[in-house]
């Protein structure tokens, strides 16, 4: 029995597009299923808040800290000019950051650079840890980093590629769900200070414009990244 399992596993890993398809289906289930989505949403929140933080620094703002909460929400605080392009780009960056990270991961996997993706994740998580300002945030970063490190340290290159594909799919698919959740909250009047509403006040545009833009960007990233993953010859 063990020999059959090993043989099946080897055949699966040798067939990159089949393995990528299975990884995509698993990621879809993880995102759609509420029981798995609630804890794993922390990964999406980490990427989201990291996007805010990176753009805040690139736009010349001072990063004061990041907080991650047990309800999977987050907050990135930066100081600088309260209006202008820097603030707009900082507010805008959170939702697209998740999809763009998934897209970048998909490209690295298809370029046979899964190990670069994994080490890159560890570097980014370590840098983000320095900016975390609450205990739950530290725990979230350490658990996520520990899982990635375990793959880097113990998994074979083929399994590293498969896990990287799974993470890429999860970010590509999971990057869309919070946008829908935000839209529903706004329809019930429960998200007056969301990124979309703050952008609307800064730019005097409808909040729905930002939600639509984020969703379209996420869909483009999903289609492009998914195509790359499904067409790769070997994982």
UniProtKB/TrEMBL annotation:
Keywords: Membrane, Transmembrane, Transmembrane helix. Pfam families: Peptidase_M50B. Coiled coil: none annotated. InterPro entries: Peptidase_M50B-like (IPR049500). The chain crosses the membrane at residues 12-32, 88-107, 113-131, 138-155, 161-180, 209-231. The keyword Plastid does not apply. It comes from the Bacteria. The keyword Membrane applies. This is M50 family metallopeptidase.
């Amino acid at each position: 029995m063990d020999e059959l399992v090993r043989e099946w596993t080897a055949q699966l890993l040798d067939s990159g597009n089949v393995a990528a398809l299975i990884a995509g289906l698993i990621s879809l289930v993880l995102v759609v299923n509420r029981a798995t989505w609630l804890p794993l949403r922390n990964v999406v929140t980490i990427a989201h808040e990291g996007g805010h933080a990176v753009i805040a620094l690139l736009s010349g703002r001072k990063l004061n800290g990041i907080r991650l909460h047990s309800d999977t929400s987050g907050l990135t605080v930066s100081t600088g000019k309260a209006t202008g392009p820097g603030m707009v780009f900082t507010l805008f960056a959170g939702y697209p950051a998740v999809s763009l990270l998934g897209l970048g991961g998909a490209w690295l996997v298809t370029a046979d650079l899964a190990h670069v993706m994994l080490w890159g994740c560890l570097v980014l998580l370590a840098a983000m840890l320095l900016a975390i300002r609450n205990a739950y945030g530290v725990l979230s970063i350490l658990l996520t980093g520990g899982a990635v490190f375990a793959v880097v340290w113990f998994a074979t290159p083929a399994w590293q590629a498969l896990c990287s594909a799974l993470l890429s799919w999860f970010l590509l698919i999971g990057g869309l769900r919070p946008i829908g959740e935000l839209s529903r909250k706004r329809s019930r009047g429960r998200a007056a200070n969301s990124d979309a509403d703050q952008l609307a006040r800064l730019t005097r545009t409808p909040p729905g414009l930002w939600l639509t833009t984020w969703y379209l960007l996420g869909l483009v990233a999903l289609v492009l990244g998914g195509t790359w993953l499904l067409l790769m010859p070997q994982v």
